[in-house]
Specification:
This protein is α+β, with helices and mostly antiparallel strands and 596 residues long. The chain has 17 helices and 17 strands. Helices cover 55% and strands 18% of the residues. The protein is rod-shaped. It binds adenosine-5'-diphosphate.
Amino acid sequence: MKSIRFRTRLMLSFWVILILSSCIPAYYIFQTLENDIYKEAKTNAFTQLDFIHWILAGKPVDKNNQAFYQLDQWCKEVAKQLNYRITVIAAGGKVIADSDVAYDKIKSMDNHASREEIINARKSGQASSIRYSITLKRKLIYAAKNISLANVPSGVLRVAIPLSTVESRLGYFSRQFLGILFVIFIISTLLSVFLARRLEKPILDIIQAANAIGEGNFDKQLDIETGAEFSQLSACINEMSNKIQQHIQQIIEQKQELEAVLEGMVEGVMLLDKYGKIKATNQALTWIAKCVPSCVGRRPMEVFLNPEIQESCNRILEGKDAIKRKVEIDNETIYEVNLVKIPDGGAVVVFHDISELVRLEKIRQDFVANVSHELRTPLTSIKGYAETLLDEKFRASDQSESFIKTIVKNADQMANIVNDLLELTKLQQQQKKTLQMSEINASACFSAAWETCMLMLKEKQIQVDNRMPDSVHVMAIDNSLIQVFRNLLDNAIRHSPSGTKITVFAEIGSEVVIFGVADEGTGIPQLHQKRIFERFYRVDKERSRDSGGTGLGLSICKNALTGMGGKIWVKSPPDDQLNGSVFCFTLNTPMPVESL
Ligand code: ADP
């Protein structure tokens, strides 16, 4: 029934209603008509019977002993005139005269006592019945009447009139009726096909519109004018389509906003489904996980190759609400991973790069440890010697002066460390602001630094080969540049044996000037070259400390140069030497006037 078309169902329904509404009244009318016709036929039969009875009553009495034969002949004669069958039945049911049966055969006829009309006529004087006559082989209407006449033996007089006229009337009526029914049926079929098509058309239009909405085509607007309900329905569907379109538009906009937010985040974000597979990620996560082409559909373990992440994801999916943990990926980046359960059974995982924070925290911890360590050594020494001097015996001895000198030396060392630390802090704070640099002559700054190192140079008999032109203009802060030169010269002197040479040069480029301070000293092993610019980093701690170093000189240089937009690096040994080292740094040249 489901697969039958609406049009066919409608037509079938029409037909059923039509058949029921025309056949029931037609059947009723036909039945009434048939009854009426039969009733009329019976009345007619009784009228004829009465007439025959009247004629029979007037028939003269037969005097001879051929009374039955006479009666039979009389019946045949009357029947011939009237075209009926006339039968006279004796009281016991024996036929004594019959217009349609030869006289000699009457004796062999069945006893008629059990015939319906005979039984009823006996009971109520007269009766009728309609039956098929085996004798005459056709349907007849029988009308019977008790007779008690002087000229005929008592019994029953019966008239049988053929029903052919009645039946032909009924046949005519039924043919007429069937003809009308057929015409009605054809007209109503055509009408129902037309109506069903008219009704089906808007339904097909609605189906088409609903399919279009389902496929996301909201431009199609329904316009059905047939029937108030259909036009109302089409208006509802159009409104529904517009609302769906608005909602979808809203959802798309929200999705785009969310995607923009996710894509703009530096944190990696991934969404897990309830089966623990990656459902979606943002660009940052693709970079973190180095997924090519996409992480979607894979498990976290396949993507990160990290059991800790997989284990956290498993715990969240098993029911834990939120997890926060630190994870190192590829042994280089540290992430704070936040996992939060979402209502549909999946989870959101956010990767926040905290490598810099961890690094800064480590630097801070190392710095505190280093400062404490650096200060503790001279402090311990000062305390030791001072306590010794408290003893009068030692105070009076010749050693007391050397003790006091050591105390002063260590106090100087501590003062140097504190000064360098303050300098470093100042430089680091300056880096956060934009420094007010000016065009200065780097050669003059070097000369100023050289001046301060004269005593040390003399003591160690070290020559300085200054290959810098008299005027080298750079963008810098003079005090900072003097300090850079001083620290580099100081290092070169302290780490070079007596009688060696320090060479200072400058290579002037269009945008930057490269300065170099080269010595012929101990040099720096490759292993340490990268780290010597860190605070308190020393290749040989004891030697550096003994020579008055604080471990902060190069760090100060690096910070000062970074603040002025330059860079510093070391090459040990220099390209053209077997030992020693060269410290190079850059500074920007002033911009040409025309380019300003
Ligand atoms: P320090 O005050 O100890 O010299 P620096 O920061 O200036 O501290 O230098 C860091 C370390 O780099 C030194 O301890 C030393 O081991 C090494 N170094 C610096 N300059 C030179 C140099 N010219 N020759 C050899 N080693 C050097």
